[in-house]
């Protein structure tokens, strides 16, 4: 390789140092997400410099699943799995603050905030990581769109995964493709909020910065969000975490009202490609015999 051409500084020849390519990371903070988490990680872990997965006290085997399926990525340092105790009052800012610490330790410049039920298409993952690598320092947020999905038929995780494997016609596409901030500058970033803030009509939890910044938006639909499409038993768990009552929101197990923008409009079959690649290994992991006292996988 030809060495960089020296440049003059004060009459002396000084070798020009090549600029370091910006480093991109991901943070995912999860609680009882064994149904979706492996797909969220698998869509992005091969494209970024450091993926930080923070488990916040899951009892369904979420952390164990990620550690087993992505043992190689953990071994080569691309993926870090951090386990925290259950968060008091579901204060997710504690987990996100720890994730930011680990990203800074890895010298990450820009990171993607990806929830465990946000699953990117292969082309969407490449596009977002590409945007993150070229994100100007003045830009603190980059937003993109995603499909919003819904299902109410599949109750438990194993049944849900088997439906995906078989291509069962159980998923619906809502009538909106909302835009969410996904890519953030690491410099000056800090985490705020609790998981239930948005449900309580407060500002939603998220990432803010210590300075004014610009926001860029792409209108491309890059991911599919399975929040309302996860197994019904898992939806009930989330509602309990938000409101303290698993029966608080009737939309958990019935169609949205027809006058809502989130009303399911049509059947959804275009699931992200990582699901087809990983649904078999996830089902195999759930089916394994485990000794008494081990974490129970969420597939009963």
Structure description:
- The protein has 300 residues and is α/β, with parallel strands linked by helices.
- It has one domain (22-287): Spore Coat Polysaccharide Biosynthesis Protein SpsA, Chain A.
- The chain is 28% helix and 27% strand.
- It has eight helices and 14 strands.
- It has helices at 37-44, 62-69, 71-75, 92-105, 122-133, 157-166, 232-243, 273-287; strands at 6-9, 12-15, 24-30, 50-55, 79-83, 110-113, 118-120, 139-150, 172-174, 179-185, 189-192, 206-209, 214-228, 264-267.
- Strands 3, 4, 5, 6, 7, 8, 9, 10, 13 and 14 form a ten-stranded mixed β-sheet that branches.
- α1 (37-44) links the parallel β3 and β4.
- α1 packs across α8 and α6 (157-166) crosses α8 (273-287).
Put the structure in a nutshell.
Helices cover 28% and strands 27% of the residues.
CATH topology: Spore Coat Polysaccharide Biosynthesis Protein SpsA, Chain A
Largest sheet: 10 strands, mixed
* Secondary-structure content class: alpha/beta
Low-confidence stretches: 6-15
Number of helices: 8
CATH class: Alpha Beta
Helix content: 25-40%
Number of strands: 14
Element pattern in H and E: EEEHEHHEHEEHEHEEEEEHEH
| Mean pLDDT value | 89
Strand content: 25-35%
CATH architecture: Alpha-Beta Complex
Tell me the count of domains: 1
First CA to last CA: what distance? 57 Å
Helix and strand arrangement:
Elements: E1 6-9, E2 12-15, E3 24-30, H1 37-44, E4 50-55, H2 62-69, H3 71-75, E5 79-83, H4 92-105, E6 110-113, E7 118-120, H5 122-133, E8 139-150, H6 157-166, E9 172-174, E10 179-185, E11 189-192, E12 206-209, E13 214-228, H7 232-243, E14 264-267, H8 273-287
Parallel strand pairs: 3-4, 3-6, 4-5, 8-13
Antiparallel strand pairs: 1-2, 6-10, 7-13, 8-9, 8-10, 9-14, 11-12
Helix pairs in contact: 1-8, 6-8
């Amino acid at each position: 390789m030809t060495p960089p051409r020296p440049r003059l500084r004060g009459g002396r020849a000084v070798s020009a140092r090549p600029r370091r390519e910006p480093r991109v990371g991901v943070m995912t903070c999860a609680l009882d997400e064994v149904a979706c988490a492996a797909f969220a990680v698998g869509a992005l872990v091969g494209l970024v410099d450091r993926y930080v997965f923070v488990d916040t006290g899951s009892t369904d085997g979420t952390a164990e699943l990620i550690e087993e399926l992505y043992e190689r990525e953990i071994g080569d340092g691309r993926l870090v799995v951090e386990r925290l105790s259950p968060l008091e009052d579901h204060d997710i800012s504690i987990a996100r603050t720890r994730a930011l610490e680990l990203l800074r330790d890895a010298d990450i410049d820009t990171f993607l905030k990806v929830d465990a039920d946000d699953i990117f298409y292969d082309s969407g993952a490449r596009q977002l990581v590409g945007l993150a690598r070229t994100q100007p320092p003045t830009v603190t947020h980059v937003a993109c769109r995603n499909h919003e999905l819904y299902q109410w038929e599949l109750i438990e995780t194993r049944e849900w995964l088997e439906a995906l494997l078989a291509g069962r016609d159980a998923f619906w596409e809502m009538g909106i493709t909302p835009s969410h901030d996904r890519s953030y500058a690491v410099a000056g970033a800090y985490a705020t909020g609790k998981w239930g803030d948005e449900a309580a009509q407060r500002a939603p939890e998220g990432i803010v910065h210590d300075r004014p910044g610009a926001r860029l938006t792409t209108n491309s639909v890059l991911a599919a969000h399975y929040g309302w499409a996860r197994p019904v038993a898992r939806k009930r768990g989330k509602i309990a975490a938000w409101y303290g009552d698993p029966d608080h929101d009737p939309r958990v197990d019935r169609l949205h009202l027809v006058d809502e923008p989130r009303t399911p409009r049509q059947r959804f079959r275009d699931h992200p490609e990582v699901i087809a690649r990983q649904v078999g290994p996830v089902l195999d992991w759930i089916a394994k015999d485990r000794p008494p006292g081990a974490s129970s996988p969420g597939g009963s």
